[in-house]
Amino acid sequence: MAQILLLTASAEGAALPALDLLSHRVRHIPAEPASLVSAPVADLVFLDARRDLVGSKSLAKVLLTTGMSAPLILIVTEGGLPAITAEWGAADIILDSAGPGEIDARIRVALGRAKPTEQAGHISSSGVVIDEAAYSAKVHGKPMDLTFKEFELLRYLAQSPGRVFSREQLLSEVWGYDYFGGTRTVDVHIRRLRAKLGDLEGLIGTVRNVGYRFNPSTDDLDLAEVGA
To answer: In terms of domains, do 7 and 105 share one?
Structure first.
C-alpha cells in the first residue's frame, strides 16, 4: 500500500474516481504552492491538471524546485495530452477516466523506477545507513546510539532528501497529532542528531525561518546552522 498525495482543487474523489477503489492511503491537499509547505510525506504525488494546465505546469515546477523527491503523475483529460511535455518533470501521466487496474499498475511502475537500487528496509545516503526493520542507524559504519524519536526523525527526513519540512510538520508527523509539546522539542532532537552524526552533522540543514531538511551531500554546509 502506497502513501499518495493528491493535489487538486476539486472535491475528494473527483479528479481520479477509480483511485478510491484501491487500498492505497490517499491524502488530498489544495493544488496551490502554499499547501506544499506543510504537505505530508508521500511515496507518490498525483497532480490534477484537468482544468488549469498553465497553473498546473507552474505547480509541477514548484514541486521540483522545493525538493519533492516522490514521483509525480499528472491527471489529465484526453484534450490536455498535447500540452504535456518533459518540462513538467512528471514521471507519468494518466487520464481521469482510467480504471483501478491501470491506476494501480502505473503506481507500481512509478515507485519501481523511483527506487531502482534501494534495498528493502534500508536508506543509505552520504555515509549514513538507516535500517528501518531494526530501528537502527550507522554513520561511517559505526552504530549510532539513538532514542526512538531520534531514529524516527532521522528516518523521516532521510526519506525525502532535499525537501524542507517545517517544525510544525515534523512535530505532527513524527510525534503525532495528539502530542501537546511545543516545536522546541523538534529543535532539541535536531541538535542531538547533529551531535551524534559527528562530522556529518551538515546532513541535517536548517532553512532559516522555515524548518529543516536532509541534505544528500555535505558539501553545502552553509545550510546547516547548528545553533538553530
So the answer is: yes
Same domain (yes/no): 128, 102: no
Instruction: Indicate whether 45 belongs to any domain.
Output: yes
In sequence order, what DSSP letters do the residues of 8-31 get, joined into one string? -SSPTTTSSGGGGGSSSEEEEE-S
Q: Per the structure block, which three cell numbers stand in for 14?
A: 473527483
Tens of pLDDT, residue by residue over 5-33, are 999 988 877 889 999 899 898 999 998 88
Cβ(198)–Cβ(180) under 8 Å?
Answer: no
pLDDT of residue 118: 46
215 in any annotated domain: yes
The answer to whether the beta carbons of residues 43 and 112 sit under 8 Å apart is no
Q: What is the spatial distance between Cα 133 and Cα 122, in angstroms, rounded to a whole number?
A: 8
Please tell me the distance from the alpha carbon of residue 100 to that of residue 112, in angstroms, as a whole number. Answer: 18
Specify whether the CB–CB gap between 8 and 52 falls below 8 A.
no
Decide if 228 is inside a domain. no
pLDDT, one tens digit per residue, over 95-146 is: 999 999 999 999 988 887 765 444 456 788 778 888 888 888 998 888 999 9
